[in-house]
Amino acid sequence: MSSALLIGLDLGSTSFKAAVFRAEDGAVLAQTGRLVPWQRRATGACEVPQAVLDQLLQAVLQTLVAQLGAQVSDVQAIACAGHGGGLYMVTGHGALAAGMAVSSTDQRAAALAQSLNLRAAANLAAKVGCSAWAGQPTMIAAGIAQSTPAALAATPTLFFAKDYLAWCLCGEMATDYSDATTAGLLDTATGRPASLAFAVSEVPGWSAETLAPLRNSGQRLGRVLPAMATRLGLPEGLPVVMGAIDLFAAMTGAGCTQPGDTAAVFGTWCVNATVAGPPQAGEASLVLPKPGISNAVLLNADLSRMYMHNGASSMANLAWLTETVFGGEREALLTAAFTAPQGANGLRFLPFINGGQGNASAGFVGLRAFHSRADMARAVLEAVVALHAKNLNALRDAGLPRARLFALGGGAADVRIPGLLATMLNEAVYTPGADETGARGAAIFAAQALGLPTQVLLARCHKVQPLPQARTFYQGFLAEFDDLLAQLVPVVGHLLHQR
User: Fold this and answer.
1) Which of 56, 329, 405, 417 is most buried, judged by most C-beta within 10 A?
2) So what's the pLDDT on residue 43?
3) At 128, which CATH number?
């Protein structure tokens, strides 16, 4: 008897990954990935045409089907994960607004978000679990409404990257709690859409009803449409299951889901999160706003929570240096970075290639004629890991215990990067390495919908220990890094205002 197969999709803010997992043991039977060809402009816009995204979905799934061959008939369900925020708004005509999907790294509304926070940051955080940020759908839509109001004229339904994929597959419009609260659209006390979140954006016609219906991760949405099944080569009537934001999908794939479990996700964003679980009777919840917490996120209708401390840029910094200095050769960059001495011969880097709080931007500090490209690679890598370490410590200092620490995302594929994090924090780090835990987590949600066991689907993580001989150096490095950010972020923010 053939084993059931499960498809997990993960549309990130850099690449689109997909894999097929065998339900009986979690083995990967097919896998593929493509870069998302985001169009980035000096205005801060970061978009991809709907037609290009549709072609990408088709190409990815057809590749999986080709790899499976006759085994495609054993596929029992498909679920999607995806990057949070951004703007995926389907108009009454059944198309994305302006024919574009917008990435969560879009920065055109940075000034709007900053202005709103001056007026209402505390009220927003207390109600929806976060203050305003440029990549929120409400802020992006507000920016578009100012310049091109006609683009938002049709009555919309708002959801997120993973939900767009599911809608293309089965025609059902819905979203989940993790995406909706990360974007600051739900009342964290009730789990219902928050009118305040839509009202403060002042987008004409928007209200709490704009958000697509909420579903739990692991809940069936519908079945692949017959025409899509034929076009893609998928089994007729294949169930489509609600997934989660890519962060929680990756955590689910690695088994990082128990209270106190903490994840550093080395992806486009510097994402760090600690699981708190559902509220217990008599438990005093964290009162927001609170230093060290950027988002309070609901995970399901039972109000299970995780708390996050995020920065705008993580591996995006290395991706930029790879393209601009290393000719696109990622392995060459990593080899150079780990060949250079710790501390990069005094060179430092501000890791905000996609912007950040206070209009931060990226830049080298202390660059001298004797510095090599290896020093540059080391400086960028150390800054990226240090930003994660700083934000992870902020979560702990906010009162969230750290039971186990996981390193996930594309940056964790090279075990030396989780090793550097372990050394900076002087504690063990669990990592699944190159496993596509976002897609795996989506497959686990698919298994839940079918009533299949999920423990066997978890990625195999290995434990990385800190390097004792480097701990003293990196303890001082982290303290210096904090001082560097405190002094220079306002400076680069001022320079941006002078453009």
Assistant:
1) 417
2) 86
3) 3.30.420.40
**Domain ends where: 248, 273, 301?**
248
Q: How far apart are CA 249 and CA 81, in angstroms?
A: 6
Picking from 293, 438, 322, 317, the residue whose alpha carbon sits closest to that of residue 380 is 317
d(CA 44, CA 56): 23
Q: Of the residues 200, 231, 248, which one is the last residue of a structural domain?
A: 248
For the chain, the C-alpha Rg in angstroms (whole number) is 22
- The reply to whether 321 and 234 lie within a common domain is no
Cα–Cα distance for residue pair 72/64, rounded to 1 Å: 9
pTM confidence score: 0.91
Nearest alpha carbon to residue 210 among 152, 143, 287, 124: 152
The answer to whether 157 touches 171, Cβ cutoff 8 Å, is: no
Which residue is associated with the tokens 């835990």?
A: 437
Instruction: Report d(CA 389, CA 481) in Å as an integer.
Output: 10
Q: Which helix (H) or strand (E) holds 493?
A: helix 468-497
* Residue 454, in any domain of the structure: no
DSSP 72-128: GGGEEEEEEEE-SSSBEEE-TTSSBGGGEEE-TT--TTHHHHHHHHHHHHHHHHHHH
Residue 270 structure tokens: 């510097």
Q: What is the pLDDT of residues 380-426, one digit of tens each?
A: 999 999 999 999 999 999 999 999 999 999 899 999 999 999 999 99
> Which residues span the domain enclosing 235?
5-248
Counted domains in the chain? 2
Nearest to 374 by CA among 323, 326, 317, 424: 326
In whole angstroms, what is the distance from residue 162 CA to residue 464 CA? Answer: 31
pLDDT value at 498 more than 60: no
At residue 357, does pLDDT exceed 70?
A: no
**Closest C-alpha to 343, from 373, 385, 382:** 382
The CA distances from residue 1 to 4, 24, 74, 450, in Å, are 9, 12, 10, 18
Cα(406)–Cα(375) distance, integer angstroms: 27
**How many angstroms separate the Cα of 315 from the Cα of each of 66, 271, 311, 343, 409?**
31, 11, 11, 19, 9
Residue 108 lies in a domain: yes
Q: Which residue in the block uniquely carries the two structure tokens 């692949």?
A: 224
Both tokens assigned to 357? 């709080």
In 10 A of CB 98, how many CB atoms? 18
Q: Which of 46-55, 309-318, 440-449 has the lowest mean pLDDT?
A: 309-318
In a domain, 437, yes or no: no
